[in-house]
Design brief:
23 helices, 590 residues, 27 strands, seven-stranded antiparallel β-sheet, alpha/beta, 33% helix
Length: 590
C-alpha cells in the first residue's frame, strides 16, 4: 500500500474577485473580504475552470499587483490546465493564506499584517468596496498525518491566518499547542481553543530569531506521535529548524517549516552613501570570491561547526575540522567580511555565525554552493573553449557528459529528482489529455518520473507503471503510487512512454539515442521539458546558460525538440503547454 503523500495538487486558475468589505481584526491585522463569480466554476475565453478550492489550513494564493498600477498588463496567461507567467516588468506577486473560505456565500477572507510597508499591505490599506483583485492558486494543500497525538503550531503575526483557520476547522482531532510571537500585546487575537489546547504569546520584534528559538525550546516535548508546523520570517526559522531536526530529531514527515517573509536589512548611512556613489560610477562585475569562500566554508564544515559550538576559538575550529590553523586563518577574515562569521576580527571572544552564515544553515541555500547547481557553475570556467570548439562546458571540465555522471552517481541523480518535484504542479494539462483513454501500461524515464507518477495518481489514472533502467530509482516513486516495476530496456512494449526532464541532462547525441530506444518500446511517447525560462524566476536570463553548461545546447525550444524527434524517427503530433515555460510534446512513430 502506498504511503501518504505530503501534498494534494490543485488546478492553477487565474481568478478575479472584488472587495466586499474591510475590517480591522486588531490594530495589527486588517481583513479584506473578497467575493465574485469566479470563486465558483466559470468559463473564460471558452475554457471552463473549476470552483475555487483551498482545503488546507495553510494554503497560499498568489496575489497579482503592479508597481505601475497597470495590473491587467501584469496578469499571466491562462492555459486550459495551468498558468504561463509571461514577461511583465512591473509585476509584483505576494503569497497570502486564506483565513476563511465560505463557498456558500462565495467569499474569501484574507488577513494582512499592518506594518506600513509592502505592496500588498498598501493595497489592503487603500481597498474599498468594489475594488478588484486578481490571484492564482493555491497550487497544493498540505496533507497532515492521519493519526497524531499532538500538534505544535509556531509562528509570528504572518502565521496567524493559518493558525486561526486550523483552530476553526480542526483538520485533525489532536491537542494543539500554539506559540505566536507578536510585536506588541495589541496583536493578540481570540483563538478557537479547545480543552487540551495551549497558547503562548511572546512579545518580540518581527524577525527576532533569538526570541523565537528561545520560545520554541521552552515548549514542552510531549510523548507520542506529534507534528510541528512553523511559519515566520525565513532567517528567524533557521535555528528553529536546526533545533527540531538535530536535537528533537523530528523526521521529515513530522515537520513543516516555511519562511513566510524575508526581512531586508536597512543599510547603514555609509552603505547608502556607497550605493549612491555606485549609481554615479560605471557598474562593476561582481567578484566570484565571496561565492568561492562560502563554498569552501560549507565543504570544510566551518558553518556547521560554528553553529554547533558557538564561541570556538580559531585554534579550536581548526582542530575540530582537521585543518591547519594557517588554513583557517586564510578563511576567517574573508568569512567575517562577508558576514558568514562574526568574532574573527572584532575582539569578541569566540566565533559565532553572522547573518550570511545563518542563511547557509538552510539546505536550499547551501545547495547553491555545494550541490549540482554549484558544479554546473564551476563548469562554466570552460565556457570560452566550449563556445569556440563545440561540446559542453561540463564535458570539458569533467572529461565526460553530465548524463554519464548522473548515471553512475545516485546522489547526483537524486538532486535532479528533487529539482523536478515542482513538476507535479504543472502536469494537469498532460494527465487530462485524451491520449490516456486507452492506456494500460506506461513507461517512465527521467528524473521527473516521480512527479508524473504522482500526477497520474491525482488524476485517477490507474495504470501499470514501468520504470526504465536508467530512470528514477523505484524507491523514489514509492509513496506516490503502488510500487512500479523496475525493468531493463529488453522488456516488452508499453502503450505510452513519458520521458520527464530526461533530455535536460543529455547532449543532443544522447537525447537522440534515448528517443531511438523509446521507439523500440512504444508508438506513442511524451517529452516533458522546459522550453523557455520561468517568467517568475529572478534568474530567468541564466536559464539558457545553465542548459548549455550541462549539454552543450541552449535551452531546447519546441523546434529543437522536434528536430531531435525527427532525427530519431518520430513525428510531433502536438504540443501541450503546461505553464512556467514547460511543455509536453506528444510524439508518434513515423
Amino acid at each position: 500500500m502506498a504511503a501518504q503523500r505530503a501534498y494534494t495538487t490543485h488546478p492553477l486558475v487565474l481568478r478575479r474577485v472584488t472587495v466586499r468589505g474591510v475590517h480591522q481584526v486588531t490594530p495589527r491585522m486588517r481583513r479584506v473580504v473578497l467575493g465574485g463569480e469566479e470563486l465558483a466554476a466559470f468559463t473564460r475565453d471558452g475554457i471552463g475552470h473549476p470552483a475555487f478550492a483551498a482545503p488546507g489550513f495553510d494554503d497560499h494564493v498568489k496575489l497579482i499587483l503592479a508597481a505601475d498600477g497597470d495590473v491587467r498588463a501584469a496578469l499571466p496567461a491562462q492555459l486550459p490546465h495551468g498558468i504561463e507567467w509571461t514577461p511583465a516588468e512591473h509585476r509584483l506577486t505576494r503569497d497570502y493564506t486564506p483565513r476563511r473560505v465560505d463557498a456558500q456565500a462565495g467569499e474569501l477572507h484574507l488577513d494582512f499584517v499592518v506594518h506600513g510597508d509592502g505592496p500588498a499591505e498598501a493595497w489592503s490599506a487603500a481597498a474599498r468596496e468594489g475594488d478588484e483583485l486578481w490571484f492564482v492558486g493555491p497550487k497544493s494543500s498540505l496533507r497532515l498525518p492521519e493519526r497524531l497525538d499532538w500538534i505544535q503550531l509556531v509562528g509570528d503575526e504572518t502565521a496567524l491566518p493559518a493558525i486561526g483557520r486550523f483552530l476553526d476547522e480542526r483538520p485533525l482531532d489532536a491537542p494543539a499547542h500554539v506559540l505566536v510571537t507578536v510585536s506588541d500585546e495589541s496583536a493578540r487575537q481570540e483563538l478557537a481553543l479547545r480543552e487540551g489546547d495551549t497558547v503562548t504569546w511572546v512579545v518580540a520584534e518581527p524577525g527576532d530569531a533569538a526570541a523565537l528559538e528561545t520560545a520554541v525550546r521552552a515548549l514542552p516535548v510531549e510523548a507520542g506521535e506529534g507534528y510541528v508546523w512553523a511559519a515566520a520570517e525565513s532567517r528567524a526559522l533557521l535555528p528553529v529548524r536546526r533545533y527540531l531536526q538535530r536535537e528533537r530529531k523530528l523526521p521529515k514527515d513530522r515537520l513543516n517549516v516555511t519562511g513566510y517573509w524575508h526581512r531586508e536589512e536597512a543599510p547603514a548611512p555609509e552603505a547608502e552613501a556607497t550605493a549612491d556613489a555606485a549609481v554615479r560610477e560605471p557598474a562593476r562585475i561582481p567578484s566570484p570570491l565571496p561565492w568561492l569562500v562560502a563554498r569552501a566554508a560549507l565543504r570544510l564544515g566551518v558553518v556547521d561547526a560554528v553553529a554547533d559550538a558557538p564561541g570556538l576559538s580559531a585554534e579550536a575550529l581548526a582542530t575540530r575540522l582537521g585543518v591547519s590553523e594557517a588554513g583557517v586563518g586564510v578563511l576567517l577574515p574573508l568569512l567575517s567580511s562577508y558576514g558568514v562569521v562574526v568574532g574573527a576580527d572584532d575582539g569578541t571572544p569566540g566565533l559565532r555565525l553572522g547573518p550570511a552564515g545563518e542563511e547557509l544553515l538552510d539546505e536550499h541555500e547551501r545547495e547553491e554552493y555545494t550541490g549540482h547547481e554549484a558544479e554546473l557553475l564551476l563548469a562554466l570556467t570552460h565556457l570560452a573553449p566550449a563556445l569556440r570548439d563545440g561540446g559542453s562546458p561540463w564535458r570539458l571540465a569533467s572529461g565526460g557528459t553530465l548524463h554519464e555522471a548522473v548515471a553512475q552517481d545516485a546522489e547526483r541523480y537524486g538532486e535532479l529528482v528533487e529539482e523536478c518535484e515542482q513538476l507535479v504542479f504543472l502536469l494537469g494539462g498532460l494527465t487530462a489529455d485524451p491520449l490516456w483513454e486507452d492506456v494500460g501500461t506506461c513507461l517512465l524515464t527521467g528524473p521527473g518520473s516521480a512527479s508524473v507518477a504522482a500526477a497520474l495518481d491525482d488524476a485517477g489514472r490507474r495504470l501499470r507503471l514501468r520504470v526504465a533502467e536508467d530512470a528514477v530509482p523505484v524507491t523514489v516513486l514509492r509513496g506516490h503510487v503502488p510500487a512500479p516495476e523496475r525493468i531493463d530496456w529488453t522488456a516488452g512494449p508499453a502503450d505510452v512512454a513519458v520521458a520527464a526532464k530526461a533530455l535536460a541532462h543529455r547532449t543532443d547525441e544522447e537525447a537522440a539515442l534515448l528517443l531511438t530506444r523509446l521507439a523500440g518500446w512504444t508508438r506513442t511517447a511524451v517529452l516533458v521539458e522546459a522550453s523557455r525560462p520561468d517568467g517568475l524566476s529572478p534568474h530567468a536570463a541564466e536559464a539558457a546558460l545553465h542548459a548549455y553548461a550541462a549539454t552543450g545546447s541552449p535551452l531546447r525550444d519546441s523546434a529543437a525538440v522536434a528536430a531531435l524527434a525527427h532525427r530519431s524517427g518520430w513525428e510531433v503530433e502536438r504540443t501541450i503547454a503546461l505553464g512556467w515555460g514547460t511543455e509536453a510534446t506528444v510524439l508518434r512513430r513515423a
